[in-house]
Amino acid sequence: MKTESTTYNLLNSISYPEDLRKLSVEQLPEICKELRQDIIQELSCNPGHFAASLGTVELTVALHYVYNTPYDRIVWDVGHQAYGHKMLTGRREAFCTNRKFKGIRPFPTPVESDYDTFACGHASNSISAALGMAVAAARKGEKDRHVVAVIGDGSMSGGLAFEGLNNASSTNNNLLIILNDNDMAIDRSVGGMKQYLFNLTTSNRYNQLRFKASKMLFKMGVLNEDRRKALIRFSNSLKSMAAQQQNIFEGMNIRYFGPINGHDVKNLARILRDIKDLKGPKILHLHTVKGKGFEPAEKDPGIWHAPGRFDPETGERITTDTSNLPPLYQTVFGETLVELAEKNPKIVGVTPAMPTGCSMNLLMKSMPDRAFDVGIAEGHAATFSGGMAKEGMQPFCNIYSSFMQRAYDNVIHDIALLRLPVVLCLDRAGLVGEDGPTHHGVYDLAYFRPIPNLTISSPMDEHELRRLMYTAQLPDKGPFVIRYPRGRGVLVDWKCPLEEIPVGKGRKLKDGKDIAVITIGPIGNTAARAIERAEAEKGLSIAHYDLRFLKPLDEALLHEAGRNFKRIVTIEDGTRKGGMGSAVLEFMADNDYTPHVERIGVPDAFIEHGTVQELHRLCGMDEEGIYNILIKNEE
Fold this sequence. Notes:
Blueprint: H1 17-20, H2 28-45, H3 51-55, H4 57-66, E1 73-76, H5 83-91, H6 126-139, E2 147-152, H7 159-170, E3 176-181, H8 192-199, H9 204-220, H10 225-243, E4 255-261, H11 265-275, E5 282-287, H12 295-299, H13 329-343, E6 347-351, H14 355-358, H15 361-366, E7 371-373, H16 378-390, E8 394-398, H17 401-404, H18 408-416, E9 423-426, H19 444-448, E10 455-457, H20 462-472, E11 480-483, E12 507-510, E13 515-519, H21 523-538, E14 542-546, E15 549-551, H22 555-564, E16 567-575, H23 580-590, E17 596-602, H24 612-618, H25 623-631
Parallel strand pairs: 1-2, 2-3, 3-5, 4-5, 6-7, 6-8, 8-9, 9-11, 10-11, 13-14, 13-16, 16-17
Antiparallel strand pairs: 10-15, 12-14
């Protein structure tokens, strides 16, 4: 669906920011109103990230109005905020294809548009990337090029943001950092930084006077760059004494402006113009409301982060009856964790800002003192879990597979090295669908496989997930990885007794004589359907093994396959390079078996966005693709 072209007085005339800049300042509130309404209309029928983009409408309009984009660089942090940006930069007509297979991409990327200056999808990278651009512009003599980093939606809790700030404070640059403070990440922001940003105050009048005085003193020759920095430090000290509050940003010699109302577009445009050409790094602190302009989203921005389809008039979310469907894997995780924690007092839960997304909120509700949301800080989540494990606790640390990439060193250095009993639950493993290449969790099997002391597992269904979770929290299991996908399982009757699974022990699901199929994880269910079809239609006899554990491997199972089959097909919802198929090939070579091994998995490429079904078909991992591999020598 695309909104009717007659709906808007101003928005229909704007294809690119140069059209926006032809408007008067007095027209900006109207364009914001129309842009916000268009976002609401579009996302009501084509779901995506909703509330965050509503909160940045005025900021988006003001930035493109004041700055000469795309020559001036705007670096967005977390693409959740950037739908308005997409609509104003040549993609409004195509926005109905957002997140759809072969449609426009879910997050800003330079691959799609010159207005998208850097890849964003994972949080907290904007300051570092923008600082690099600002330094590069200075090195190339591009004195008229401005660079702006827009960080918010909880991203300031990420360690990389502080690394960027630290470097910005000591590097010669004119970077502007806009802090979009909406008191939220996806769930509510947590920690001292959230409270600090909420309370931080300074005088706009003071900043205006200071700006005018510094310009005058530079013209008079009284002030140079070295004296300016010394004066900033002195004035910061006086301001801190007067306010009885230390400003963390100005303590780093980064000029601070705000906080100001991020929804007053005319004032915001004026301030951006006033500080646009100031020398040195600067922070502009905005207070915004996530979900602004749509009452249900303002009241419950967590639910409306990505609400699915809804009625734009009533705010009623359009849902389907799922009572007779298998549960989401995350629901099985959340309910099983509570069940385990009730019996094991050592269990605690940890998640980096995704308690609702991974269902850790169930433990938070039932045992709030035993569940920790640490903010957008995956590395800290891993090391924090390691610290608790060192002192006798049993952490279940739930991190989306693609975000676990950011904690790789922490897992090696702070968990595996000491063989600490941390259960690393990797939600959203495999191809995740519409969020695309920044969010696909396809590398975890390959990047965790070389690490000593790790147990790496993946359940084929909900019963296996429950039993692996039970097994992982038993004594002396060490660090234990459990990966499972986004979406629903396969069992409506999913509750089962909690029983131990022998570590490193796979399952033979069926016998066969012609081909051995080895799978790991829920994609084994797709393989089972392809096997049944190949046997029925082509008369093949196919054995099916569920490996369960990538590490340690079930060597007895692999010896059986190596001795008895000339053809082996491995199937995994992960990268073919370095994953389970590679482990099987290594085992066969190490033991002098010579079967022909074919590996089905994600190819050596970044896979685009689309539904999981579309992407599995693209990669030859759907039922049809597996069936065609199984029968290819039978035609």
